[in-house]
Amino acid sequence: MAPQQEEDRFLAAYDPRAFDPIAVTVDVVALTLREGALHVLLVRRGAPPFEGAWALPGGFVRAGRESLGEAAARELAEETGLDAADGLGRVHLEQLGSYGRPERDPRMHVVSVAHLAFAPDLPDAKAGSDAAAAAWISVAELEPGWQPDAADPRPNEQGRWPGAHGGGPGHRPVAPELAFDHAGILADGLDRARSKIEYTPLATAFLGEEFTISELRAVYEAVWGATLHAGNFHRKVLSVPGFVESTGGTATHGSVRGGPRARLYRAGDARLLHPALLRPDREETVR
Amino acid sequence: MAPQQEEDRFLAAYDPRAFDPIAVTVDVVALTLREGALHVLLVRRGAPPFEGAWALPGGFVRAGRESLGEAAARELAEETGLDAADGLGRVHLEQLGSYGRPERDPRMHVVSVAHLAFAPDLPDAKAGSDAAAAAWISVAELEPGWQPDAADPRPNEQGRWPGAHGGGPGHRPVAPELAFDHAGILADGLDRARSKIEYTPLATAFLGEEFTISELRAVYEAVWGATLHAGNFHRKVLSVPGFVESTGGTATHGSVRGGPRARLYRAGDARLLHPALLRPDREETVR
DNA sequence: GTAATAGTGTCTATAAGACAGTATTTG
DNA sequence: CAAATACTGTCTTATAGACACTATTAC
């Protein structure tokens, strides 16, 4: 190590302020199900850099005043309009990872601590103070390897691009570039979500307090982009201890297209699923 | 949101420097096997705060000059004496998570991006510039719920506490408090390591280029603190595609206490294990 | 020789998936 | 009534673990 660097380090041990500053932000990959398809919360940036581009919601951590998780919950609340009282408590929020390449923000070195959130269907997003717009965007339209007929998500009138990046009605809009390195963060978040529901009961975080097994299966199908066998899924879920517990009730209606009224369940007390629900068809893509 | 805070945010969108600074550090939970037992690299702090206490190796990220992973690799190299040339390349290094409670460092708000490293048996550690000492410390002596006879690690002459926190020869020293929140980071790192070797082939990162199945089993036994069935483990490892591949060679000697010469293997090309090697006995501790 | 180990065979319990079948509801 | 769905039964295959057995090496 060069002598100058050693001197730097020595000083820093006594006063970290001797270093050039690095800004710390939190970003949130917030996922929800709308119209049977997986959606992510995005904001349109109202200021440079990347003004006008879509980005993950996030912002600077308030030094000395909040932890990383608190900052992420605050940013999420600002964009969703939720507060702790009316449902933020039902949202699952976990840390995803930190992103700190020096050139990832043109202004200065910014380290972003990304978080991942699973939310039940929420009302339309509303822009926070520094965003021009906020919206739930269909993940299928954002992913490069999008396969339009995988899992057959119902055509959604809701999830269209609000405004920008045109494409008249009926046209599939071109997936936009996300600001900064947010495309990579989103990809990591989707990876994490897809594997996390394998071995934890967090798929239930996408649903209301009470749900049917079919609704739970719809979560897995939307997140994984795969069709699951209804009968085997049903038995499997009920056989994993602590995954779900019966409420004793039944749904008030059958399905839209017929069928008996399904029984209702709530999330159980397990934190990990034993045995896990493994994704189908991953053997060869993995090596 | 209060008007003053909105104003803060508006300005920050244009100039992040308007915020109070947060320092960014990296810390490394570096694990290795010595004398058949899991060890972690610790340093004795040579400067306040927590001067004289043991801590994870780490330091400040150099603003604008390195990514988080590069900073972690640099800090690890400084304490282990390795450089990219002579073996740092064989060390597995991944991000563990970030820790940012405002009060975790008494000097100022410091966000630490913790990393996790798996290393083959390395030479004795040597203190970096700002540490009074560095040493590989037996993990068993650091964990609260330590069970002295679990997995029967051989009594190690090497892993004793060098100096501090006395305890004469033959006495088990009291586990010391780690500086900052490093005890929690270490616990998270051990959790991650224990689950990561279930579904990835990273246990091989603790071994040399060539190894026997028994050496690989010793890694699992040391990390999990459990005894595994030799015969079933052997067959299981060979049955997972891409986990290990034969080199064609055999060990030059049998085991210390007899037995045939074992065949040699190297790490295969799989990145995930299918099916995974599940830890025994976790059903009820998990809920 | 004795003891420990490497590697393999076999049996059982469990789990996953394919498939079928019954009862219930919508339209 | 026709069609879709909720849920259960059954069969086949893959896997995990218990146990046993042989061959090989150290001392």
UniProtKB/TrEMBL annotation, chains A, B:
GO molecular function: hydrolase activity
Coiled-coil portions: none
Domain of life (superkingdom): Bacteria
A Pfam cross-reference name: WHD_NrtR
Annotated InterPro entries: Nudix_hydrolase, NUDIX_hydrolase-like_dom_sf, NUDIX_hydrolase_dom, WH-like_DNA-bd_sf, WH_DNA-bd_sf, WHD_NrtR
Region (Disordered): 146-170
Keyword terms: Hydrolase
Residues covered by the Nudix hydrolase domain: 23-161
Keyword Lipoprotein: no
UniProt cross-references to PANTHER family, sorted A to Z: ADP-RIBOSE PYROPHOSPHATASE, SLR1690 PROTEIN
Name of this chain's protein: NUDIX hydrolase
Organism encoding this protein: Streptomyces fildesensis
